[in-house]
Target: Carrier domain-containing protein
Amino acid sequence: MVAQKATSGELLEKVREIFCDVTGLDADEVEEDSELDELGVDTILAKELARKLSGFSGRAVESSRILESENFIGVVHYIQSILDIGNETTSGNDKETPSRKQAKDPRSAATNDTLPASVIQEAFSSTKKITDELIVDGHMGNYCGEVMPRSTELCIAYLVEAFEQLGCSIQSAKPGDKLKRVPYLPKYDKFMDLFYELLREQALIEMDGSEIVRAAQSCPTKSATELLEDLLQDEPSHAPEFNLVQVTGPSLADCLSGKQDGIALIFGTAQGRQRVSDLYALSPINRVWIEQLAYFLEQLVKRVPQNGQPLRIMELGAGTGGTTSTAIPVLARLGVPIVYTMTDISASLVAAAKRKYRENPFMQFKVVDVESQPDPELLRSQHIILSTACIHATRSLPVSLKNIHSMLRPDGFVMLLEQTQQIPWVDFVFGLLEGWWLFEDGRHHALAPVTHWEKIMKQVGFGNVDWTAGERPEAGLQRLIIGYAS
Ligand SMILES: C[S@@+](CC[C@H](N)C(=O)[O-])C[C@H]1O[C@@H](n2cnc3c(N)ncnc32)[C@H](O)[C@@H]1O
Model:
């Protein structure tokens, strides 16, 4: 084929053939919306693609431009622009179901259907009412009174052991003795401040100006290993969080001194990654509120007047799918037209989700960085944006929330699941990650009270903001926060 004379459809097939040749994939695995990461196109393959596409087109093809393309069709468009043969590439994908075709144009369906505010309010109000019930049913009823104090004691035991290794014995010091500060890498400044604050709160130390002085409280009488065994035996449903504390605790001294890397420790092994995934998918501290979110979606979707147009739901920072895996079966069971776009900043997590959920024709997958200006096609496109345990990890809540607001239709809303109170073991584990300390918007900690979320959401244009609450103390640990686009 002479490239300059290729029609758009032929061009698409030719580029697909070159992709298959370079990547070793079959033609049906290279779809228009296949992301380059998903196709395994890295810098080296991009260079090879550029070489072959140059040969085919007779023009200079830059590998950097290939890598900038979001997906396969983006590369076709790039080659098309080089060849200057018009912009009429047909989809060429006759295998697509009508629902998937519809899903490709987010705004096509967003014209005449509306999500009545009264319906959302009704669904949220019935969801709020069951907060305490879900806490008790979800093994969280004794969390503040028993589980959390014991997991904090476990962290203290690990801390005391780490300080001992770093040359400061809290154990053998007597009340009133001065304690020397332990050495640590400068990047752990804020993390260390939290530790000293925790030791102070637990009355193990007092601060006397810049001096640290041993206070009266005894150190845990059992070792961290013994405390962990007791906890795993007494509170097995909370094992995912104890297991994570057990990943970081014994290596704390090595991390602080730079002998070990926190990210490698937590995410560098399959076991570590599984433990994090289990935390979001299985632990009661997350499950209770994810179940509540699913309950809300069910209450809402059942009430939404149907006019055949799909409800557009986008999940941000969906990660390993703790929320997705609960929401999808509920939505699938309800049998109403939905387009659910699963997104994350991590291309590999999006690719993994695409493989996992390939049987769900109503799902789409996209890499989205909530801190960046949304793609124009996403603007005012979504009825519902969901995000669990993600937005707090961004540099600026105002920027992220404004971006979210811009992707919502005027009748849409965001629902965030966020931890709104600090829990010592959470800092103990995630404080080792640089991502925990990214915030640069005036926050003092990654996590913020719900009133802070409300203030920022209103500042960036959300209308009413509401959140779950209950009588139980656990009701304030995490909350579903809803913000109406207008
Ligand atoms: C704690 S995990 C989320 C857990 C997940 N929502 C669940 O329910 O299992 C945080 C996720 O946010 C993602 N993330 C971090 N920064 C992001 C950003 N700027 N934009 C989008 N996603 C982001 C991370 O890649 C990670 O998958």
Summary: Residues 86-112 have pLDDT under 50 and may be disordered. The longest strand covers residues 408-419.
